[in-house]
Each structure stands twice: as C-alpha cells, then as structure tokens.
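stage 2 :: seqdesign
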C-alpha cells in the first residue's frame, strides 16, 4: 500500500478550510456543495460554522451555504444547552455519593469553555469515577432514570469484566446517554495508564460552572492529561468514522493550551509517566501534517523515541493519512477502505490479548447477529 500523498491539489476542501478559514470567501457554489458534503460526512458542519464565524468569514460566503451552516450553528447551540442541562442532572444524581464528577472529552470541553467545544456534537457524556465506586455511581444514576443499554449477557460481561467502563446508560425519558469510565483504556489493553494519577491531577471548574452543575464537585482532567486522553481515544480506537473530528479536537486543545508556560515541556514528560508516548507521538505528527498545528520542534523531538521504527512508521503514515480524512468519496482512494479496516483490527489488537480478541470477534460476527 503506497503512502498517501496530500499534494496541494489533492488536499480535501474541508482540510483546506480547517487550515485556513479565510479561504472560504473565495469558494464558489460548486465548491461549497462539495465542502458541505465532506463536512457532513465528518460531522463537522457546526464546527465549520463556528470556525468561519470566529475568523469573520461567514458573511463573505454564498448565501445558500451560509444558511446551511447557520442551521448547523443553531443545532450546535441547542446541543450545548442540552449538555449543560444533562451535566446538572448528573451532578444532582451524584451529589449524595461524595464522588467527584470528572468530565471527559466533549462534556469536559463544553463545561470548561474550551475552543474545542465550539460546534462539537457528541452523542453521550463521559465521566470518570474510581473503580471501587462504580456500583454506587451506577445505583445513583439508576435512581435518577438512567439504566444500562446493553441487555445481552455477553455484552454485560464484556463491559464489566474486560472494559474500562460500564455499559452505556440511557435515560428513560430524555434518552441522554452516559458512559461511566473507571479508566481511559480497557483492563485488557497492553498499556494501562493509572487512572488514580489522572484523578489526582484533575482540576475543578470555576465556581459559576460548579453552581450550574448541581451539588456534586465538577472537575476535568489536567491540561496535559486532557490532550493525552484525546490522543488515546483516537489512536487506540479502531473506528475512524469521526477521525478528523477527533484530530480537530487535538488541534484545538494543543493550539489553545500550547500558550500556557511550560505546557510543551510537561506534555511529553506526562506521556512518559503514563506510558502514553506512542499515541502522543501520533497525535503531534498528524496534527502538524494534516491541520498544520503549530507544534514546537522540541516537543516533536521529545516524543520521537516513543514512535515506531522507520519501516513501521511508513506503514502507519499510509494508514492514518487515509483514515483521518472524511469518509467521503472525494477524500479517499482505492486503499482508504483497506486502511480503515487494518486500523480497526489494530485498535482491537491493542485493547485485547489474542485469545480474547478472537473470541470477541467470533461472537460479534456469528453469535450476536443470530440473536438480533
């Protein structure tokens, strides 16, 4: 499989706009039609709306495209309001437990007011709690209307025995979904960063946010840990249908947090401490390559030793530089589907030992479909 080469003419329009939003003012209707299709396939229409608005370009694009993006912006605002409401409900549910409410990923970005939250749509709210408090947290959430979605006995065992989270919990009336994590990687993964270290370094949100989130203390991961969790989520997972969205998360986190004194020195050091140097290496490499994230050379050099050797890196480049593009026909080649399939296998391989992985894939391929 030849490595993907993104020459200027081959760079998808969406990637060009994410790199340089001002370019949107020069596009015609046909280009905007293609651009919006690419954005829809990556679930980035609302993010694109926010980016163009932030850079003062929204008024210079064709009216038809602007109307489409404005509706995406309205949807994003409603989504943000719903997230704040659901966090308040989760906080109220956990208020009597004494367990701090540590938000992860999209919920954390939204409640912390980070740039990564603008226009970001997500289907569930992720929280991190101590493993020995899982039963208490699950019971508290059940009393407030949430219950586990996975009813199949195999799925229940899969989550509760091997994974780093409970089965997803869905609210009976509002259909909101919570993922209750006790770690950021499964129990069976080859690398298992200590979740106690993540919880110990978590930071409280401002008092105004605390007041809006019920009586439970609300926290998010420390800046470096937030980046590392985002990197783990993208580069240890096997599904890339939202790969560009997740890479954009990393780009925005690095761009906004990178100005903090000492951040770029602390990030590789924290990755080494948590044994997450490899996903950080990939995160910095592909953010810089695909989104032109301003990553200091010193940070790239500090993570290079954690990266793969030359031959393996060439292979990973050929896979990731395809899989991280939008899943739209205009953004791929004949190898793109194969690249995503190989990364799906890789993601499962990193998360489970061979025997368990074989059993799991066999069950999902042959037993679960018959039950359905």
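stage 2 :: out
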């Amino acid at each position: 499989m030849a490595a993907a080469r993104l020459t200027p003419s081959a760079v998808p329009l969406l990637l060009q706009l994410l790199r340089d939003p001002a370019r949107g003012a020069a596009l015609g209707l046909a280009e905007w039609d293609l651009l919006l299709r690419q954005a829809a396939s990556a679930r980035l229409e609302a993010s694109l709306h926010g980016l163009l608005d932030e850079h003062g370009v929204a008024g210079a694009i064709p009216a038809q495209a602007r109307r489409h993006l404005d509706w995406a912006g309205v949807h994003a605002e409603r989504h943000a309001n719903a997230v704040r409401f659901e966090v308040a409900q989760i906080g109220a549910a956990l208020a009597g437990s004494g367990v701090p409410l540590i938000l992860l990923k999209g919920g954390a970005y939204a409640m912390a007011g980070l740039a990564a939250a603008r226009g970001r749509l997500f289907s569930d709210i992720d929280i991190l709690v101590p493993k020995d408090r899982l039963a208490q947290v699950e019971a508290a959430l059940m009393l407030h209307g949430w219950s586990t979605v996975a009813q199949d006995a195999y799925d229940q065992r899969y989550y509760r025995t091997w994974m780093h989270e409970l089965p997803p919990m869905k609210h009976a009336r509002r259909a909101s979904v919570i993922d209750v994590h006790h770690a950021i990687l499964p129990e069976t993964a080859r690398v298992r960063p200590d979740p106690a270290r993540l919880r110990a370094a978590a930071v409280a949100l401002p008092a105004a946010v605390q007041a809006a989130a019920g009586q439970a203390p609300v926290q998010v991961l420390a800046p470096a840990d937030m980046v590392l969790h985002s990197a783990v989520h993208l580069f240890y997972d096997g599904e890339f249908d939202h790969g560009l969205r997740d890479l954009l998360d990393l780009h925005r986190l690095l761009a906004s947090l990178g100005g903090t004194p000492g951040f770029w020195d602390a990030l590789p050091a924290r990755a080494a401490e948590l044994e997450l140097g490899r996903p950080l290496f990939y995160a910095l490499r592909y953010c810089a390559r695909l989104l032109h994230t301003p990553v200091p050379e010193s940070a790239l050099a500090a993570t290079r030793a954690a990266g793969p050797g030359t031959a393996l890196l060439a292979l990973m480049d050929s896979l990731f530089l395809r899989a991280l593009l939008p899943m739209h026909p205009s953004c791929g080649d004949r190898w793109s589907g194969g690249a995503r399939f190989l990364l799906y296998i890789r993601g499962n391989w990193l998360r489970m030992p061979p025997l368990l992985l074989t059993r799991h894939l066999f069950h999902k391929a042959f037993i679960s479909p018959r039950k359905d």
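stage 3 :: structure notes
- Residues 222-372 form one domain.
- The chain has a mean pLDDT of 91.
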